Amino acid sequence: MYGVLMIDIDSTVLTAEDISLIKQAQVGGVILFARNVTDAAQVRALCDDIRYHNPDILIGVDQEGGRVARLRNGFTPLPAMGRLGELFNKDPSQALARAYDCGYLMATEVLAVGIDLSFAPVLDRDGISQVIGDRSFHHDPQAITALATQFMRGMKAAGMATTGKHFPGHGAIAPDSHVAEAVDTRSFDEIMHSDMQPFAQSLPWLDALMPAHVIFSQVDDKPAGFSKIWLKDILRNRLEFDGVLFSDDLCMAGAQAAGDVSARVKAAIEAGCDIALVCNDRVAAHEAAETAQELPYPNQNRIKTMCGNIPLWQGELDATCQQFDYWQQAKQNVTQTFFNTQSEVQTSDFKDPTAYI
Questions:
Q1: How far apart are CA 168 and CA 141, in angstroms?
Q2: Ramachandran class of 5: left when φ > 0, alpha when ψ lies in -120 to 50, beta otherwise
Q3: Residues designated catalytic
Q4: What does pTM read for this prediction?
Q5: Residue 223 DSSP code
């Protein structure tokens, strides 16, 4: 059975401690970070080994494009989604076509190495947030919706479920919830008619959502990921969303308002999350796994919708991706549009705003 926790692992191969942790009853997922990656063949071997020890497990990664890309060596580079927004301002038709290609290309290469899902797309508006920036498609909600829908169409065509983040919107406040408490003082109506629109309008394409570790103080005094008002009253009941809810990382500073990690896991699940992420803190992961034994299992049919269409491994990435009919064309389209020179491909000099590991 799929459990309520998603945890991380130490390195590029499983340690005895990793194996012990992922075999625990309530561990239902593993998220990979850059430290877990050397190349495609190694990642596929790692994912196969994880499933050997726990067949009922989701494997996820943040492969958004631009600065937020855990899979780099040997993988096709993806532009930051803000590049699609810039193209949309000049040529909407081409931007929408490339958004589809980016979603398809990302999904095929992630699936090829044995990973079920990338936590994408980002549906936040590009505003004053220190951590969102060009991870967002655009500032205008309608443009975000149009581009994100095409991106998700591409993901789904390749066989990957979609995860929108960070509900109901992280772009309008400056503090980075990875390292600080973030508070948005706007009214519900202001949020609903601006930042929430990409989420609300994209619901038919969304298989999962990840709430923000942001306190929307005029709605609730808890961060959205711990708020029954946001997750149950608004998201489940008002918007009638029936997909999976992943918490954002409960070791982030923005989650500390809920107490220690045991309290955070309980609060997230009780508020309405299906799976709680506990990352980059091994002591916390063990505590969370112990706490999770007291919690009910998540809805199994709902969780199974996130399982990716993993292809047979053909010995290397390109040969494996050739099993996807449109991979080669998508790769060519994205590369020609966004990476005309080698200098544009080099993104390692730019700081990943999510790399707090």
A1: 12
A2: beta
A3: 178, 248
A4: 0.94
A5: B
